[in-house]
């Protein structure tokens, strides 16, 4: 799932994107955002992200395609996506309902740049989408999305074995059941996107998926993962893992 913002005014696009990032974090919705000013760019990326996605679309775009027409074309590819119209023209709200694009909401720009008044409207729309997702996909597996060599890779969180910090670089190695990736980022950044309670991030340089721990030697500080990788920790550090496993 991707959250698209299509707004041709750069200042408004950046502000709305920042608000969305903050609210998604507060609601623990791990959804990447694609922010774009040109509707044709949104349409061009849809084959790689068929959805269901979330779309915040400005109605009055400085392009041959306005927000409502963009929504019609999105519906051809993503019939179950969540479309939210964003506009200063509240008089066009009725048009969005009759346009056969099945919008999830209409967000007025009246209070844009006034976070105290704008944010509650934005949050209510996101909560509505979140509630619907939980009803329609209650057992949908959690994913972690990473950027690797210019590509966005979507990994199932239950396939993650461990994440290791690369020394002296702001990079981490993400190890899964069948692959490993070296990506830009930090342990802290990736930990904030992991939703399951079986991830142990009490180490400074590692995150371990305890479901994939095969053996632990608490005396020597050795941890063997399900793929055979052996990780070594100090005796003082391994105690944190022992306490975490006992609490579970």
Report on this model:
GO terms for molecular function: DNA binding. Keywords: Activator, Cytoplasm, DNA-binding, Phosphoprotein, Two-component regulatory system. This is LytTR family DNA-binding domain-containing protein. With 248 residues, the chain is of the alpha/beta class. It folds into two domains: 134 residues, 3-Layer(aba) Sandwich (Rossmann fold), CATH 3.40.50.2300; 105 residues, OB fold (Dihydrolipoamide Acetyltransferase, E2P) (Beta Barrel), CATH 2.40.50.1020. The protein has seven helices and 15 strands. The strands form four sheets. A five-stranded parallel sheet has the order 2-1-3-4-5, with helices on both faces. A five-stranded antiparallel sheet has the order 10-9-8-12-11, with no helix packed on it. α1 packs across α5. The mean pLDDT is 86.
Itemize the secondary structure elements and their pairings:
Layout: E1 3-6, H1 10-26, E2 33-36, H2 39-45, E3 54-58, H3 67-77, E4 82-87, H4 93-98, E5 105-108, H5 115-136, E6 143-148, E7 151-156, E8 160-166, E9 171-176, E10 180-184, H6 187-191, E11 199-200, E12 206-209, E13 213-217, E14 222-225, E15 230-232, H7 235-247
Parallel strand pairs: 1-2, 1-3, 3-4, 4-5
Antiparallel strand pairs: 6-7, 8-9, 8-12, 9-10, 11-12, 13-14, 14-15
